[in-house]
Recover the amino acids of this structure.
């Protein structure tokens, strides 16, 4: 391939980057232009700075394609399927280098390069103007977003202390969407806001800035898959407040406020119990009826949950309740469900343990009342579940069998890895998927029509013969006739009314004359 490029144009390309990735997103280009005028944004290669006073002729040198003498390569590159197939196999590093070749390469390689984006939340992630401007330009191409919020020593919050008395203060957080430029207290009242501002780190205030999350997530209009990762969780700090949970609350509200209609996949790996509570559209802070309807659109769900256990080896009962409550919101449309316990093996997430497996607190006689029994959660039932993947689970064969029996009409694929059966065998567990359902005999009732022969006699019919019309008379004196009506009603019971039987008496001669006509040759 021989490629030639004008030196002067090469200098123009290298001297000033451009602003519009492609003509595919005019909205993204307009937003980019607006952010460029505001200043503070760094333009990437392949973008055009429309805020400057340069003429259209000067833009032409920046947007010129590489002049290639190979018609075969041009035909291959301009074919959408061939080009997209090639770009899908190229590593990210090569795609970034390819965008430096010319404007056309930059435009066409942008969707493949920015389709998968990872964000590690920090203090200025959603507040720095240059990062927001970059999200406006790149968010149109993002289809998979990975949001990382690791647990560190700095993410655990210290207790609030009254500056005057030194006593510990209690604080109940309520999400508040504060408009830009508003001077209203973010945390309820001015006194609480002042104490939180002085004693809590800047990362906490960035995590509770719900408006910034909403502003940032509005750029991902074509988002299809959302991944949330919260590594580094320390189970010994489970009862301490963490900035990670506040960030997840803001992220959930931002997803609910924006119209991300293409979002249908969700991955939580790894996720701690507090994270499930923060992401729950039913129990989370700031949840609304709209929250449940938005998350109910998810069709693919993958969860890697951190397993908590007590010192005695018993499981954490509240964790399983919380997990099942979180899963209830996905019962209507979920098609693919993958679950794995991190750490020790845990119970089946879709099945409530029986009474012998409950915690000592729940087995106490005072707790085993009819009221508590009625409050137990109902079994989970996913209407459209097709693929199930379970890993690192300890359950009885009867529990797995009950779950498969209620979903065998829709399930097409099963994947079980690291499953420890406490009772029963795998034949018992997979019995609903392997046994052929026996046909239950049933009685069928139907009305069968019966055709009667003319030789059956007049007494066989349950109705009277209709009127007879004479059409014409031939030379031999025989008349050709047609019957307009033969039977006026269906045959009823054997007990014919007496009036009907008497009406047929005395009509024998007339019937003989009828049967002698040409319409009935046997007569």
């Amino acid at each position: 391939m021989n490629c030639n490029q004008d030196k002067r144009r090469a200098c123009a390309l290298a001297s000033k980057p451009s602003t519009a990735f492609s003509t595919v997103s005019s909205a993204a280009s307009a937003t980019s232009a607006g952010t460029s005028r505001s200043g503070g944004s760094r333009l990437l290669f392949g973008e055009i700075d429309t805020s400057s006073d340069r003429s259209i002729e000067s833009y032409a040198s920046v947007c010129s394609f590489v002049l290639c003498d190979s018609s075969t390569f041009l035909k291959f590159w301009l074919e959408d399927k061939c080009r997209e197939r090639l770009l899908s196999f190229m590593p990210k590093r090569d795609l970034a280098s390819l965008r430096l070749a010319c404007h056309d390469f930059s435009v066409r390689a942008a969707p493949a390069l920015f389709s998968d984006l990872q964000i590690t939340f920090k203090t200025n992630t959603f507040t720095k103007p240059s990062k927001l401007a970059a999200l406006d330009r790149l968010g149109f191409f993002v289809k998979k977003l990975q949001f990382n919020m690791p647990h560190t020593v700095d993410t655990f919050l210290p207790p609030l202390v009254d500056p005057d008395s030194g006593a510990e203060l209690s604080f109940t957080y309520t999400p508040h969407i504060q408009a830009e430029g508003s001077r209203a207290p973010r945390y309820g009242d001015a006194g609480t806001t002042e104490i939180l501002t002085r004693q809590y780190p800047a990362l906490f205030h960035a995590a509770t800035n719900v408006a910034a999350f909403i502003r940032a997530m509005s750029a991902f209009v074509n988002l299809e898959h959302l991944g949330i990762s919260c590594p580094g969780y320390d189970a010994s700090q489970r009862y301490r407040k963490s900035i990670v949970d506040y960030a997840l609350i803001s992220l959930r509200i931002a997803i609910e406020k924006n119209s991300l209609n293409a979002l249908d996949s969700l991955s939580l790996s790894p996720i701690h119990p507090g994270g499930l509570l923060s992401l729950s559209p039913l129990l989370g802070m700031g949840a609304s009826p709209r929250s449940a309807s938005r998350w109910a659109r998810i069709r693919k769900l993958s969860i890697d949950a951190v397993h908590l256990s007590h010192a005695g080896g018993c499981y954490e009962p509240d964790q399983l309740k919380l997990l099942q409550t979180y899963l209830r919101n996905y019962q209507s449309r979920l098609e693919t469900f993958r679950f794995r316990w991190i750490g020790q093996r845990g119970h089946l997430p879709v099945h409530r343990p029986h009474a012998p497996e409950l915690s000592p607190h729940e087995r106490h006689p005072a707790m085993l009342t009819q009221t508590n029994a009625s409050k137990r959660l109902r079994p989970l039932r996913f209407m459209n579940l097709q693929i199930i993947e379970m890993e690192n689970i300890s359950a009885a064969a009867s529990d797995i069998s009950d779950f498969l029996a209620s979903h065998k009409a829709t399930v097409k694929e099963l994947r079980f890895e690291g499953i420890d059966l406490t009772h029963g065998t795998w034949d018992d567990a997979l019995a609903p998927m392997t046994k052929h359902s026996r046909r239950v005999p049933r009685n069928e009732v139907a009305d069968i029509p019966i055709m009667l022969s003319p030789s059956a006699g007049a007494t066989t019919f349950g109705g009277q013969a209709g009127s007879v019309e004479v059409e014409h008379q031939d030379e031999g004196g025989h008349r050709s006739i047609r019957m307009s009506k033969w039977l006026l009603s269906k045959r009823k019971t054997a007990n014919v009314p007496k009036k009907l039987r008497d009406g047929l008496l005395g009509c024998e001669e007339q019937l003989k004359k009828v049967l002698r006509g040409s319409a009935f040759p046997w007569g």
In short: DSSP finds 22 helices and 14 strands in the chain. Confidence is low (pLDDT under 50) at residues 1-41, 59-64, 460-470, 480-494. Residues 454-515 form one domain. The chain has three domains: 3-106, 116-359+370-434, 454-515.
